[in-house]
Amino acid sequence: MRASPPPALCLFRVVDSYHIDCNIDDIVKSIHTFFTAVTGKTPKFKVHGGTVAEGLALQNIQARMRMVLSYLFAQLLLWVRGRSGALLVLGSANVDESLRGYMTKYDCSSADINPIGAISKKDLRRFLAYARDSFDLPVLDGFLHATPTAELEPTTADYVQSDEADMGMTYEELSVFGRLRKVERCGPFSMFGKLVRDWRETFSRGERSHRLLLLAKWGAIGYEPANGCRRGAGGGQGQEVFLLLLGYASETSIPFQINRHKLTVLTPSYHAEAYSPDDNRYDLRPFLYNAGWSWQFRRIDEEVRTMDEALKRQKI
């Protein structure tokens, strides 16, 4: 469903790397046809009148076929070229996508190793800018200015899929959440307190809390008490060592389930940053949680009311 020519092709030509650009539409269509033949039902994308579940299932077919074909070519491409051996499959999911759950289990995020799996989108952009200037690669401008997109939905006259539109948050915001979560060990309430201060000039308090809740809905916020307190070791619910993944969905958003479980199958990544979400090696946490989290939301709501009352008293 790609809408634009691949900037990767331009880069491979500049660095003189072997590259194949192939279309998988026929493969995807054959799976659609098979499903329809078995069930008698034809799923549609949202832009064609389908439900959210239909659209996600169709996107996942494409994403998972990318993984299957990547491994097929990795095993046989050297044979095709008359050489022996096999190739490694490299992943390209970044920290923000992993924390947000903006990926599919066993799709193109699955690989042998992920060179950028421990780096946020914000820092990746900074590295691309550095590489562009230091190695004289102006072709990287195409990546820096491109709209991030999974390219899994059909493009229409009034719709082009965008990562940030799908997530309801920018990669800049996700980068902030990722650092607060892992490096500063913030839970949802303490994170809200920090963002009230840090985002004072950017968002209203209501917008700040909404962004926390929106992120939490996708399973991106976790909590690690800095003092090491555990259940039963003194302290209340706010000191529990288990990950407090939130499950909030507003009336206008889609009630997705928590995505934390996806991190249990992350591809091993090059460990580069303290905010890495590498589940099996660096960021050990449980992955099944109650999605209610009423205590945390109640505390955030109480804090917002307290701030509003304080402002009203100042105006009197």
UniProtKB/TrEMBL annotation:
Q: A GO BP term, please?
A: NAD+ biosynthetic process
Q: Name one GO molecular function term.
A: NAD+ synthase (glutamine-hydrolyzing) activity
**Record-annotated NAD/GMP synthase domain positions:** 42-174
Q: Name one Pfam family in it.
A: NAD_synthase
Pathway assignment:
Cofactor biosynthesis; NAD(+) biosynthesis; NAD(+) from deamido-NAD(+) (L-Gln route): step 1/1
Q: Which domain of life, per UniProt?
A: Eukaryota
Q: Which key words tag this protein in UniProt?
A: ATP-binding, Ligase, NAD, Nucleotide-binding
As recorded in UniProt, its EC number(s) are 6.3.5.1
Q: Name one GO cellular component term.
A: cytoplasm
Instruction: Report the top EC class in one word.
Output: ligase
The family database entries (NCBIfam families) matched by this protein are listed as:
nadE
Entry similarity comment: In the C-terminal section; belongs to the NAD synthetase family.
Q: What is this protein called?
A: NAD(+) synthase (glutamine-hydrolyzing)
